[in-house]
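S.,

As promised, the phenylalanine run. Input:
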Amino acid sequence: MADIEQLARDARAELEAATTVAELDAAKVRHLGKSGPLVLLLGDIRNLPPEDRGHVGKEGNVARRQLEEYVAARGAELADAELDAQVARDVVDMTLPARAVPQGTLHLLTQTRRLLEDIFLGMGYAVIDAPEVESEWYGFSALNTPVGHPARNPTDTFYIEGHDANAGANDDALILRTQTSTAQLRTMQLTKPPLYVVHPGRVYRRDDIDATHSDMFHQMEALAVDEGLTLAHLKGTMEQFLGTLFGGKLEIRLRTHFFPFTEPSVEADVQCFNCMGSGRAPEGDAQGEGASDKCRVCRGEGWIEIMGAGMVDPNVFEAVGYDADRVSGFAFGIGIDRVAMLRHDFPDLRHLFQNDLRFVRQFPGRP
Ligand code: PHE
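Predicted complex:
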């Protein structure tokens, strides 16, 4: 008959020889696992002579329990030691600087919009908001733009619903606004004069997309309504605004034009800030291959066409219930995308909308 004491001693010696959790586990499997000698013996008790069964069972089970207790205690000890060793190895230097988290920047268009807003806030204007989806009434009729005007044509304007080619105009039909001038009506309906506001926002036109055209772009509208405002106030405001925007004291030139909602209407040119009006490339100006000595910003004109403007038409005042005999006003609209292109000297509008990071990252504006 196997000597239980001997089996237990052998097992104990091997368990004690283990110096790692893995070695201890292996020794445990060998001696206390299904085919460990002591375990096999205990499993086989019914085949022993009856007089041996009692003491073999008793001593065997005591020995097995002691071995198991030893494994549990020693296992915890070894695991603790291994953890301590690992913690000692994996030293964390709390004084190292943290890895920088990449931070986004404001898009150039946002920066440009904020700059325009700031200039007008400095002149006492308020910045207002207005819808991009408008009815034909706001988009055209109330802006003195009658049925039959080409801008109302669905080939020029995106209609959303309610347009019926056979029924003619429907003032309730929904469009994507083609100009921020709709904000003039919205503001005047909400506020009594005097008012001085600007509204930057998106506008939509059915244009083919190329370097200078997009079916969505941005404008900023300015509207001033007060007693006694004249074209001279418009020009003075433009001088202040454009001088701040492009740097320096720049001449403004007004050319007669037509807009349905202003009378008189003008197109405003600003003296070229690159050649200061000479039309010739400034000394040292980067010109690129095959370029002439003409200023590349104004293409030799000396002037940059910059915005449409005019005195608010009395019919517009009437549409919103303002008294055209008491107040007068001026308005103008400027392309925000175009301002960004001029100020930062890039020739293709599409850069602003394609979100190529190689472009976007060149203008790191912080929030
Ligand atoms: N809305 C006009 C345009 O988009 C510009 C404009 C604004 C003209 C205000 C006159 C007054 O071309």
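The chain has two domains: 2-89, 108-132+176-360. The radius of gyration is 42 Å.

- D.
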